[in-house]
Amino acid sequence: MSRSPARPLLATLAAVLATAPATPATALPDTPQPAAHAAAAPRQPHNPESAIPAAVTQRHPHNPASVIPATVPLRHPPNRKSAVPAGATPGLARAPEPAPQVTGGLHLARAAAPDCATPPAPVRPVSAPPWPQQRYAPERLSPLATGAGVTVAVVDSGVDRRHPQLAGRVLDGTDLLDPGGDGSSDCAGHGTGVASIIAAAPRPGIAFRGLAPGARILPVRVSEQQVVAGRESGRTVSAEEFARAIRWAVDHDADVLNLSVVLYADNPAVRAAIGYAVDRDVVVVAAAGNLHDSGDPRPYPAAYEGVLGVGAIGVDGSRSAFSQTGPYVDLVAPGSDVLMAAPGRGHHRAEGTSYAAPFVAATAALLRQYRPGLTAAEVAQRILATTDPAPGDGRGGGYGAGVLNPFRAVTETGGGVATRPRPATALADDRPDPAALAARARRATAQDRALLVASLAATVVAVAALAALVVPRGTRRRWRPADPA
To answer: Could you confirm whether 354 is annotated as catalytic?
Structure first.
């Protein structure tokens, strides 16, 4: 997250709604210091007057004058492209939502979001934990920290508080598209998905949950723009309004700022707004963009000083093909085939660095609760220092310090940093890192399959050899038993 001072860079704006074991604590390694981000040659295919969500296709020639989610189309057979079953049985999905609460002096949102033209995702069961959840095992982190008391601002397409897993977790926010709104309208679904990766509550019969389910979400709506079949549609705010959204979130007590948005041009107002957040001890996390196939144009805010730029990996831990690889990538997190909440009561899958960023933002929320003595900069340093090594030593680039490991970030000691952690009595000392467990389970499954195949092959060879001896002799005896001696 080390950034050189602001400098003239690209001329385009595309705001894209773009775990060490729990054994006795080990010393935190020296904090890696990513190289300063070098200036990139200016690119002119974009219009630098607006922001675009980071959920666009990796080859789409974005119009940087609008804000668009940082997601990409899923590369799966047709049955995987449709909305994924919701995480509840029909009965559970229609259960009454928890009553609103007042937490830490902040009033939790109550107003209903307006209807959208896009139909909600169908409500069907989510019976198996999605792969990022298997990797990070948030249920093992919950005895230590849930993000309780921490406010994460999601500057995005809005957050639908009606979703059962977000009910009671969404604060009154603001709407820069429709003045007077509270940020709870989400016709694009991008912000709702991002918020659910951070704070979706565990629910009976639903295998999906957020990494920091105790965190509060502060929605700031800046775009409803999407890219469908290679074409942009929907409204978005200007870069200056996007900057105002960041300042608004900071002024309304955000502890962590999630920006799943990419701008492909340096903008003075946005740069100043990021500085405003950093100076006020806010952890800033941003998507690193999906345009690897388009030459890795420099993404903002990810490339600004003090921002954690997040790239995407797939289930095997390798960098997602679309994820950008420049020096602005500080670390990587799950961003391919990610399950998340959809507006209404359903769930769906999507891809993009937009969905890698909230895993890092959620980890920051866990740290801000569990180690309240850390500054925002120290939180970011700890997250980077506790990453897992990238596959193949990160050959090919785009991994930054490595792969996010929330468990290590929370549980490892601070190497001289004043951390003042909360008591960690709920976890036994001999329990290993969930990510390590998941990796061992995958290796064991592969080994079991290989042994089974080898055993079957050996059996076939033995049967064939036996047949080669028995059949000729049987033929000569016309299949009659030998005469008695």
So the answer is: yes
Q: Is the peptide bond prior to 114 cis by the omega test (within 30 degrees of 0)?
A: no
Q: Which residues of the chain have pLDDT under 70?
A: 1-69, 72-122, 227-230, 414-455, 463, 467, 470-485
Our count of domains for the chain comes to 2
Q: What crossing angle do the helices spanning 376-385 and 357-370 adopt, rounded to 10°?
A: 120
Cβ–Cβ < 8 Å for 240, 202: no
The pLDDT of residue 167 is 96
Residue 19 lies in a domain: no
Q: Which of 142, 156, 175, 320 is catalytic?
A: 156
Angle between helices 190-199 and 357-370 (to 10 degrees): 40
If asked whether residues 350 and 455 sit together in one domain, one would say no
Domain that holds residue 151: 52-77+86-429
Q: Does 439 reside within a domain?
A: yes
User: How far are the Cα atoms of 49, 262, 327, 368 from residue 296, in angstroms, in the given order?
Assistant: 20, 12, 10, 32
Sign of CA dihedral 197, 304, 366, 219: negative
CA distance 395 to 374: 32
Distance CA 461, CA 42 (A): 65
Q: Does 379 share its domain with 440?
A: no
Shared-domain flag, residues 422 and 445:
no
Q: Torsion over CA of 259, 262, 268 and 274, rounded to 10 degrees?
A: 20
Tens digits of residue pLDDT in 96-118: 233 223 233 323 333 344 456 66
* Candidates 46, 190, 292, 347; catalytic one: 190
pLDDT in tens, 403-455: 999 999 999 985 433 344 343 333 333 345 555 555 555 555 555 566 666 66
Q: What pTM was computed for the model?
A: 0.71
Active-site choice (62, 182, 354, 388): 354
348 counts as catalytic: no
